[in-house]
Amino acid sequence: MANWFIFLDHIPDNAMNWITVRNYGFSGAADWFVFISGYMASIVYARMTLERGFIVGATRIFKRTWQLYAAYIVLFIIYIVTIGDVATQYAAPDIIYEFNVAGLVDHPIRTVGHGLMLQSRARNLDLLQLYIALMAAFAPVLWMMLRKPGLTMIGSLALYLAARQFEWTLSSFPDGNWYFNPFCWQLLFVFGAWLALGGGAKQSRVIFKSPVPVYLGIAYLVFALAMTMAGVSRRSEPCFRHGWSTRSIPSTRPISPHVGFCTSSSWHTWWRDLYRSTGAGCNGRSSSR
Q1: Which range, of 59-68, 104-113, 159-168, averages the lowest pLDDT?
Q2: Long-range contacts of range 143-146, CB-CB < 8 Å, 24 or more positions apart?
Q3: How far apart are CA 218 and CA 29, in angstroms?
Q4: pTM of the model
Q5: Using N-to-C axis directions, what is the helix angle for 29-52 and 126-136, rounded to 10°?
Q6: How far apart are CA 239 and CA 131, in angstroms?
Q7: H helical segments located in the chain
Q8: Confidence bin at 98 (pLDDT 50/70/90)
Q9: Rounded to an integer, what distance in angstroms lies between the CA atom of residue 133 and that of residue 190?
Q10: Which position has the higher pLDDT, 90 or 154?
Q11: Closest Cα to residue 63, out of 116, 127, 3, 139?
């Protein structure tokens, strides 16, 4: 569903993209994709690592990373050839600037070379670049997660804060930086992996004995919906009496994930874990699928 929402969000003037999550909260489909990718990667490779050893688990992770990289290379080559051909045949040189492949005109060899090193700014391939980088670094993260999950999560949060404070990022060619900063977006990926391995499960049993966290979670979702809809409906005029404009609404620019997504996703996951542990579902299992 996250991939489908991403696809809809990239189609201009499309009424269907009103159903995507970016219109109703502080996070978007990219946040969901990264979080779910970390969650599923942890489920798949953690079990394999525990059953067959770290070496086997790490080789499977690197194999998956190589498959993603090979797919990226194929897509990148097709992408630049197609854009270049369309620009030539239809006398529309501006299209190469629109799709961020202008380097093909002045430095074709260097553009391709930097693209193979994941330094391209080709439009719509940036999320795949991020996914490859996150998977490439996942083996040592999983090793730490299986031994010190809390410490690993703290380290991920510290890296996120340091990247925001000191503006750590990766450069792109011919200029600029990665659209999705991997030093920031790793937080969602690691957070998903941490929750998949039961992170916070003990704390959630204590927290959710009171209905207050549930009400706070619902209130947050309603607040995010109200703020986002205010930004959509009043994009060019003040939202509030005190002169606030839509620029005061928390940004969903994908340089780094919105921390609010962590709040809502952790609330949902911890509530699910509590639901299962208390046997509220049929035969002690969650009835949701």
Answers
A1: 104-113
A2: 143/49, 143/54, 143/58, 145/42, 145/46, 145/190, 145/193, 145/194, 145/197, 146/46, 146/49, 146/50, 146/197
A3: 20
A4: 0.74
A5: 30
A6: 36
A7: 2-9, 29-52, 54-89, 94-98, 103-106, 108-116, 126-136, 138-147, 149-166, 182-196, 201-207, 212-233, 259-277
A8: confident
A9: 13
A10: 154
A11: 139
Positive/negative CA dihedral, 251, 257, 263, 268: positive
Position 288: which residue type?
Answer: S
List the structure tokens of 251.
Answer: 């940004």
pLDDT band at 87, cuts 50/70/90? confident
Tracing tokens 């990148």 back to the chain, one arrives at: 76
- Phi/psi of residue 272, nearest 5 degrees: -65, -45
Please name the residues in contact with 230: beta carbons below 8 A apart, sequence gap of 6 or more.
239, 246, 249
Q: Which residue has the tokens 């966290």?
A: 213
Copy the structure tokens of residue 169. Answer: 């990022």
